[in-house]
Amino acid sequence: MTSKPEMTAAEIAKAVAGGKMSALDATEAALARIKQHDGILNSFTDVTADRARAKARAIDADIAAGKDVGPLAGVPFAVKNLFDVAGLPTRAGSKINRDRAPASRDATLIERMEAAGAVLVGALNMGEYAYDFTGENVHDGPSRNPHDTTRMTGGSSGGSGSAVGGALVPIALGSDTNGSIRVPSSFCGIFGLKPTYGRLSRARSFPFVASLDHLGPFARSVADLALAYDAMQGPDAEDSACTTRGLEPTLPLIANPVSDLRIAIAGGYFQKNVFPEAIEAVSRVARALGATKVVDIPEAARARAAAYVISTTEGASLHLDRLRQRANDFDPAVRDRLIAGAMVPAALVDRAQKFRRWYRAELAEIFRSVDVLLAPATPCTAPKLGQVNFNLDGVELPVRANIGIHTQPISFIGLPVVAVPVPLEPLPIGVQIIAAPWREDIALRVAHALEKMGVAAAPSPRGI
């Protein structure tokens, strides 16, 4: 048996564990797809073929010896290149980081994925230092949308979106500070999970904004998201923000009915600055779930503004020495925003953090009466590569700065979100399924219900 391009991770693991397909065959099939299609998609920056084959052979040997190889047996996966991969410099989408010594150890989440039987096949393209929403990288070139290669993947985890949307791998890992899992999920037509802040370890990954950074998985099915998420859970003393909560598996819960859940539509701010396709996607999801209640989220626009202040100032602080020493080696757009962030008055940062506490309390009150909120993931389907501006509610605005207009007010306070792809024509677009802190299981349940109804689905790649 040979792995087919759109075989899910669960199907591959079942076939490998059951002896119907070898882990090496699954790995070789993924490597062959990468070789065939990545010249177009430009999703990978590094392919770890030798490492992957060695891991696959070890899994096959363990199976032959009757050992348990884990729930992700033989499943190929790849990671955004801000994850430490042993033997590679952690480039984080930059030119400067390529001068770093190779990582001596994998990131915690890679270790946990491989402990569950998964096989790392490479590192993925991304926006420089994760400060990007487009998926365009001036050093490595843009990752390309698998449904129309003239269009953006979304950023900053653009390579992750492209690789999974293009069916090169069934699972990829990315990061989300202000929307960088949910935006590529939306543009590339796949499922993405941004867990609760602190839920998954960030140890041995390159940061952007430590107080907002999350790591999480992309997949072509909700079951695969849950498989990967469950494998990566657990405390980690190497990430001071990581929760000490025990394992809370979600895979056994995703098929539970959603009829008892209180589901509402995010109103006000989240129904503005949208193209018709975003309105249609939320409408389809709401109708399928029988959701009619509309809830206003107070001061969401201020939340987005405060997220900007915190992002740009923390990011500037992290990169200050690099800005002083190697300013010309940055993407100019990233460099200029970081320099601007270095000049933001401390009083504004203090106000942003105080507002953040207030806003978190307001959302906690909303989640006393609802279990799930529905909102657009992006204001539009994927723009053209190189597109500078678009028109939102009659106003010409820069694309790069405004793609995350509906994601930033959510990650600002670390809420868990599953982005579900709605397969509109000619391009898919995502909807955010937002839950209360630590209730990833609820968001995944709703996403699974939508998938079973056919409302949410990862379409086959049409651009390759």
Automatic annotation (TrEMBL):
Pfam families: Amidase (PF01425). Residues 138-159 are annotated as: Disordered. SUPFAM superfamilies: Amidase signature (AS) enzymes. Residues 25-441 form the Amidase domain. Residues 138-150 have a biased composition (Basic and acidic residues). PANTHER family: GLUTAMYL-TRNA(GLN) AMIDOTRANSFERASE, TRANSAMIDASE. This is AtzE family amidohydrolase. The lineage of its organism: Bacteria, Pseudomonadati, Pseudomonadota, Alphaproteobacteria, Hyphomicrobiales.
